[in-house]
Amino acid sequence: MTPKLDTAGTLERIFEMYSRQFGVLLPAALIIYLPVAVLQIVAGSSIILALLAVIVALVAGTLFQGAVVQAVRDMQDGRRDLSVGEVIASAVPFILPLIGAGILAGIGIGVGLVLCLVPGLFLLTIWAVIAPVIVVEKSGVMNAFSRSQKLVKDNGWRTFGVLIVMFLITFLAQQILIVIGAGVGGEIGRGIGYLIAATITAPLAALTAATLYFTLVGLKEGGQVMAPAAAPADPPYPPVPPAGGPPAGGPPQAPPPPEGPSPFGQ
Questions:
Q1: 72 lies in which domain range?
Q2: Gap between the Cα atoms of 240 and 66, Å rounded
Q3: What pLDDT was estimated at residue 148?
Q4: Where do the H-state alpha helices sit in 129-155?
Q5: Is the pLDDT of residue 238 over 70?
Q6: Spatial distance between the Cα atoms of 89 and 186, rounded to a whole number of angstroms
Q7: Domains in the chain, number
Q8: Integer Cα distance of 42 and 175 in angstroms
Q9: Which of 163, 22, 132 is nearest to 66 (CA)?
């Protein structure tokens, strides 16, 4: 029987990753979404600039999604090795397939939501980890859709639960910040509010897909589900051996790990 996704544990893991790694995630989001905010400010009533802002927003969101997947992948050993610039650069080779997959998924989900709410939500759930599949497994666009569905299978309701909770959190935060910005500074304030909202909430949305992917792969295919978000610091000095020196027969042995399941396992 396939192990089930721990919805509460997955949400906890997302926020843990966010709180421990915001030093990389927030600057990366700020850099990537800054051009979108500038275009929104200068667009005004220009249809061409507004359309350009939408296109740039799509590219920015796609690039950031890939960057966060790479960042989470880098942290699987419990340590962060990539800088902000390296995280962003690592996603650039995947931007075209990510954009292609994003457009196809957006069309399918959008049509499903317009025609009937349930099909759209169904597609949103089974395609939840397309971007991580493309980045981590270097999958083609069409194969990523079937691979995502395979990973989500048997955990559809739990995956949907994680997605809807994170959507509500990010949507409400975005709307509040944008409305406050517009009320304080008009169009410029709206653009600044959008930039602040994107910087704060985009990492949560991207972490959701990345965390779901690595967790579902662990559940489906074995192995560690997720590593700790940050490895504990090494002690500054080696432990002092017990009085009398090491026991006969060899050097002192490290104590065995504590019994019990991993907090990020099943």
A1: 7-93+153-221
A2: 45
A3: 94
A4: 130-137, 141-152
A5: no
A6: 34
A7: 1
A8: 20
A9: 132
